[in-house]
Amino acid sequence: MVPVAHRLSSNPEIEWRLSFANAEKILAEQAVTSAQRQCYSYLKILRKHTMEEDTKFSSYYLKNVFLYCCEELPVRIWEENPAGCVLYMLDILLECVQKRNIPSYFLPENNLIDYLDDAELQSIESAFQTIRCNPIAPILEFTDSRMFCYGQESLSYRTTFRSIVQLVLNEIVSIKDVDIGRTVLGCFTDIQYNIAIVMLGEKRTSFSYHLDFYHHFVQKYIQMSFVEYVNYMGIVLEKPSYALTFYEKCLAGVENFTELEYLKGNMACMCFALSLTHDDKSKERKLRLY
After folding, report:
1. Which residues pair with 156 in a beta bridge?
2. Per-residue pLDDT reduced to its tens digit, 98-125
3. CA 11, CA 219: separation in Å to the nearest integer?
4. Angstrom distances, CA of residue 226 to CA of 23, 198, 214, 230, 263
5. Which of 17, 36, 67, 283 could form an SS bridge with 105, CB 3.0 to 4.6 Å?
6. What digits encode the pLDDT tens for the residues 44-79?
7. CA angle 210–216–217, rounded 5-degree value
8. H or E segment at 152?
9. Where are the chain's structural domains?
């Protein structure tokens, strides 16, 4: 119980409200999956960057609609089709606003927006209809003024999100020339490359990032095994010394991915090639050959 009155209460000094904050925390920590959480976060970003700051539409209303949608949509759908889930939530939100009723998740008989007048509800409905027509534009506009930046001795990398996904944007408007495999590698391999370089510079491994990328994109859209993808990443790194270190880091996870043993052959070739870049009797050459 919290001492908070209804917004239209005639006796605000004596009214209390049931709070489900603890229950929401438990759901967030124990029930909501990572994929569901990401879809919800995307929805919150859309609201934040398309509605006026003084709008009376609270992000708490989004949370209640989100929890309802978590019950209605199978868990696997959030993982397999996050865009569809975001659109579904937007449709439910629009339907609720048009009916002038967003039911509380814990007390469905409680209408969360019953205090809003028609003009306010019409403004909110219009905002969500605009979002629904183009749910990508607000995110691109937000990121246009915010750069991805890595500052390392080995790399100075600055770019906008729009430039990263430009191939995807091109394919959205083209129904004749769609090649998802090309788009995935063309858009995101550069980012994977930069993550690898930065983390190698920090003497860390980027293995988990590449594994996630493989599961979410490569495995789904491209006929390429995980070891082939890791091998491909090493080749993309170009410098043999980078590739060699990258493979060494990846081999640290060989217990769970026995197929990575294949990389040892590549590493042997690279060590031999690097040895030839040093003088015949130098310590560096002996080390590489060893």
Report:
1. 151
2. 999 999 999 999 999 999 999 999 999 9
3. 60
4. 40, 22, 7, 6, 11
5. 67
6. 989 988 887 667 888 899 999 999 999 999 999 999
7. 85
8. strand 148-152
9. 21-135, 147-289
Residue 38 neighbours by CB under 8 Å, 6+ apart: 82
Among the listed residues 203, 188, 92, the one whose alpha carbon sits nearest the alpha carbon of residue 148: 188
Q: Is-contact 213 230, C-beta < 8 A?
A: no
**CA separation for the pair 1, 18 (Å, rounded):** 5
Distance CA 206, CA 196 (A): 5
- CA of 191: how far to CAs of 24, 66, 126, 139, 140, in Å? 35, 31, 37, 18, 17
End-to-end CA distance of the chain: 71
Fold of the domain spanning 21-135 = Poly(a)-polymerase, middle domain (1.10.1410)
Cα–Cα distance, 8 to 290 (Å, whole number): 80
